[in-house]
Design a protein that fits this description.
Number of domains: 2
Bound molecules: ligand BES, zinc ion
Largest sheet: 9 strands, mixed
Number of strands: 20
CATH class of the largest domain: Alpha Beta
Structural class: alpha/beta
Oligomer: single chain
Helix content: 25-40%
Radius of gyration: 24 Å
């Protein structure tokens, strides 16, 4: 569970103390920059190799006893370079202590360290044999932000592990056990609503999840600090598997739907980060947790469901289930005061079509905070882009039979109409943010393995720190 994710990160692989025995890494772009720093033999060896100094290429040089004496890292950018490339290359070095004293000023140390931590991530739980690699350690004397990066790396491991777990393991029962352990770990209060109380108080969560034998439920975690300067409510979509329900998805559309709880994973990841930073805030986390399954109990197209807020919803498509479970959680959340109300959800395929897998679209009722989020996202290598709560599209949400429909048939602006649907349950909260995440990396890249991916968390975590705790 959570410890399993955290234990795979060795915080000691980065050190900011001055260590005695270290191997120096030289970052350079041409021979003249390095000549003075190497022995004649090493320099002539490098020349013989005709080393090209291309960004991320490296050579390990020996001393006369055959031990590693230094590493030369190329920094010449001939074309667009991948994010996290240097950290990823450093992670491949043989086990030893390496000293990074003069990292080029125009390079980003945050990116290097985060990339280094994330490059060790793998999800090998279900491989018959998996051997753990002997890791190199990096010594960056006087680097100040080590903890922030470590906590982000921890969150990323937690989030990726949760998303990567298949739905035959991570179902609502397992998720409940996970959340209990998470709550113990962070000393938060936990309330679980299920059964008759769920049916009565959270009718939409019950309706969406009732077809499965793994019963639907709502998790509420509360973390309280005295003298808190911020009340933050995070809500995450916890659909452990999305078949689409009676509006069954195609095989292709369903293949990755174990990731439909990536919103829930993200809010736990963000909570982990904020609590580890020891910020003085009050945090509430709500996770409606269901399986959108098929059985004779499935809710149907044409059903009219009455939400916790009393608004009626006509079901046009049972595959638009995320907004239903979030709607009841949102209504509940607004019954108590909070400064920022946030939803994270893999809500629409339209968001992925608009932004692709790398950029996370978000919606914000507050312009200033949206600007800050964008800037923070760029700073911490977690790109986000604002989409509008465009009011005129509200008409798409009307129904001939009741107050709202859950899936406008026009199919236009799907991410926006989904966000507008959620907004209807926020009582026009003064600061409402919604992240429509993809939660998945489609191709292995430096620092990013194929599979579950944390999105929007670093940008929001950083924006919150900057606005409220600076
Ligand atoms: N989980 C999906 C959204 C999704 C699909 C996210 C693919 C990322 C990748 C969600 O529950 C869904 O199926 N939404 C429908 C809504 C539609 C029926 C209005 C969609 O986007 O197709
Ligand atoms: Zn769906």
């Amino acid at each position: 569970m959570i410890q399993k994710s955290l234990k795979r990160i060795n915080s000691k692989i980065i050190s900011n103390k001055t260590l005695k025995k270290t191997i120096t890494i030289h970052f350079c772009s041409k021979f003249s920059e390095i000549e003075e720093k190497l022995t004649t033999a090493n320099y002539s060896f490098l020349k013989q190799l005709n080393f090209d100094f291309n960004y991320g290429n490296y050579v390990i040089l020996p001393d006369i006893n055959g031990k590693i004496s230094s590493v030369i890292f190329g920094m010449k950018k001939t074309r667009k370079v991948s994010k996290f490339l240097i950290g990823s290359q450093l992670s491949k070095l043989p086990k030893n202590n390496y000293l990074i004293k003069n990292y080029p000023k125009n390079e980003n140390t945050f990116e290097l360290i985060l990339g280094f931590y994330l490059s060790f991530y793998s999800f090998k739980e279900y491989h018959k044999r998996s051997k753990s690699l002997k890791k190199p350690t990096l010594n960056l004397p006087n680097y100040k932000k080590k903890n922030k990066i470590l906590y982000f790396a921890e969150s990323e491991y937690v989030v990726r592990d949760l998303i990567n777990l298949p739905a035959n393991i991570l179902n609502p029962n397992y998720f409940e056990e996970y959340v209990k352990k998470f709550s113990n770990f962070h000393n938060t209060k936990l309330k679980i609503v299920c059964g008759k109380s769920l049916k009565k108080d959270f009718p939409l969560i019950h309706e969406v999840g009732k077809a499965s034998s793994n019963k639907p439920r709502l998790f509420e975690l509360t973390y309280k600090r005295s003298n808190s300067s911020l009340n933050l409510t995070l809500i995450g979509k916890g659909v452990c598997f999305d078949t689409g329900g009676l509006n069954l998805k195609s095989g292709f559309g369903m293949i990755n739907m174990k990731k439909d709880m990536s919103g829930a994973a993200s809010v736990l990841g963000l909570a982990h980060y904020l609590i580890r930073l020891n910020l003085n805030l009050n945090l509430r986390i709500l996770i409606p947790c269901v399986e959108n399954s098929l059985s004779e109990k499935s809710f149907r197209p044409g059903d009219i469901l009455i939400s916790r807020s009393s608004k009626g919803i006509e079901i046009k498509n049972t595959d638009a289930e995320g907004r239903l479970i979030l709607a009841d959680a949102l209504t509940y959340s607004t019954e108590k005061k909070s400064d920022i109300l946030v939803t994270f959800a893999s809500l629409t395929g339209a968001a992925r079509v608009a932004m692709g897998p790398d950029i996370t679209p978000f919606f914000s009722t507050c312009d200033d905070f949206a600007d800050l989020l964008k800037k923070s996202g760029d700073k911490v290598f977690d790109p986000v882009w604002r989409l509008p709560f465009y009011k005129d599209y509200n008409k798409e949400l009307s129904s001939e039979f009741t107050d709202l429909n859950n899936a406008p048939l026009s199919g236009m602006a799907g991410a926006i109409t989904a966000a507008l649907f959620l907004k209807k349950f926020t009582k026009s909260h003064n600061m409402f943010l919604h992240f429509d995440i993809f939660g998945w990396n489609t191709k292995s890249k430096p620092g990013k393995t194929y599979g579950g991916l944390m999105q929007g968390v670093r940008s929001l975590g950083t924006a919150i720190e900057e606005k409220f705790f600076n």
